[in-house]
Amino acid sequence: MSPAELEDDYFPQVNWFLDAFHTHFKPLPNYTPQNNFTAGEMLSLSKMDVC
Question: Is 13 helix (H, G, I), strand (E, B) or coil?
C-alpha cells in the first residue's frame, strides 16, 4: 500500500475528535457519531492491540 492510502487511518481525522468530544464531554446537538469511542470499545480494542 502506498502512504497516501494509509493517511486516513494514520493521521487524526476531524470526526474522531468530534466523536470523542460528543461521547466523553458533552453531547453535540443533532450530531451522530461515526466511530465508537466509548470506554468499553477502547478497552476491547486495547486487549486486541488495535489502538
Answer: coil
Residue with cell 480494542: 45
Cα torsion through 17, 21, 22, 28, rounded to 10: -90
Q: How many residues does the chain have?
A: 51
- Residue-wise pLDDT for 17-48, tens only, equals 898 899 889 999 999 998 887 888 878 878 87
Reported pTM:
0.60
Domain that holds residue 14: 3-47
Q: How many domains does the chain have?
A: 1
DSSP state of 38: -
- Show the cell assigned to 25: 464531554
